[in-house]
Amino acid sequence: MTAAIRTEDVAIGGGRHLRVNQTGTPGAPALLFLHGSGPGVTAASNWREVIEGLGDTYHCIAPDILGFGDSSHPDPQPQGFTAQAEVRIEALLELVDVLGLEKVVLVGNSMGGMYSLRIAQLRPDLVGRIVLMGSGGMPGLEPTPDLIKLITYFDDPTVEAMADLLIRFVHDKDAFGDTVEAVAAERMPIVRRPWIEAGHRAMFGPEMLGFGPDDLAKIDIPALVVHGRQDVIVPLECGYYLAEHLPQADLYVIDKCGHWTQIEQAARFQAIVRTFVGDGTE
User: Fold this and answer.
1) Whole-model pTM?
2) Residue 9 C-beta-side C-alpha neighbours within 13 Å
3) Tens-digit pLDDT profile for residues 46-67
4) Is 45 a catalytic residue?
5) Catalytic residue check, 125
6) Which of 35, 59, 245, 259 is catalytic?
7) For residues 61 and 51, what is the distance between their CA atoms, to the nearest angstrom?
8) Euclidean distance between CA atoms 279 and 28, whole angstroms
């Protein structure tokens, strides 16, 4: 049995809204899923299968982050990764307040993992646990060639370029080729919105959101670092770094898996999240 997804626009103030996908029962342990930064990404394309699978036990909340998908977009666009993060995280915290969530487990994919770490710095009282999946955040990490393809996607924003980009997110390209093509097709109508390209181009620059060893040492919250061994978008080195310096971190490396752990190893990812989170009473 899978949980049905409820989708609505939630007003957060300033005339803005976030498109929010939810499963499960409010009042159950709350899991807040934060997606990555790829062109045309939405919470649904990142997390659909996961929140359907976990909604029997948890209250799963997966928003389109401000500036992505069907959520409001900043106008004017903040310039730079850190400036974008500040505005988007403020909006996420407003969402948490509107939904009346007193404690959440943050589940962050790639950019969403970096946002999870920043939220834990700003509001440690709010965060019960953190799951980082293919997360960035290691200072000085050089972009991989495949990450550069993501960053420069809008230089050639075609369906073919999207499929070529997204197939790099998985290790087993034969098994998941059809899945990737479906995700690519789902993203294209969003990619064509001019504010999506504007936000993408404004985000990526020389300044990234990084967490030094001293920063991570202060995030004294149980954390699970999940990383695909064959991740060519954010290398495994980053997962090792985060696990080494977060004081309460477990590291789970999945072999024969790329950047999209939640898609390529969906059942295993859901199982380890269940084990890590438990019943949410700890």
Assistant:
1) 0.96
2) 10
3) 999 999 999 999 999 999 999 9
4) no
5) no
6) 259
7) 8
8) 9
pLDDT value of residue 282: 56
Residue with tokens 């850190």: 82
Band the pLDDT of 205: cuts 50, 70, 90. confident
- Alpha-carbon distance 145 to 250, whole Å? 28
Sheet holding 6-13, edge to edge: 6-13, 16-23, 59-63, 30-34, 104-109, 127-133, 223-228, 249-254
Give the closest residue to 203 by CA, choosing from 118, 43, 87, 64.
Answer: 87
* CA separation for the pair 87, 217 (Å, rounded): 25
Which one is catalytic: 45, 110, 116, 135? Answer: 110
* Residue 281 pLDDT > 70: no
| Contact predicate 45/183, CB 8 Å | yes
pLDDT digits (tens, 9 = 90+) for 57-93: 999 999 999 999 999 999 889 999 999 999 999 999 9
Tens of pLDDT, residue by residue over 94-129, are 999 999 999 999 999 999 999 999 999 999 999 999
Strands 223-228 and 127-133: parallel
Known catalytic residue: 200?
no
Residue with tokens 């980053």: 238
Q: Where are the beta strands (DSSP E) in 157-279?
A: 223-228, 249-254
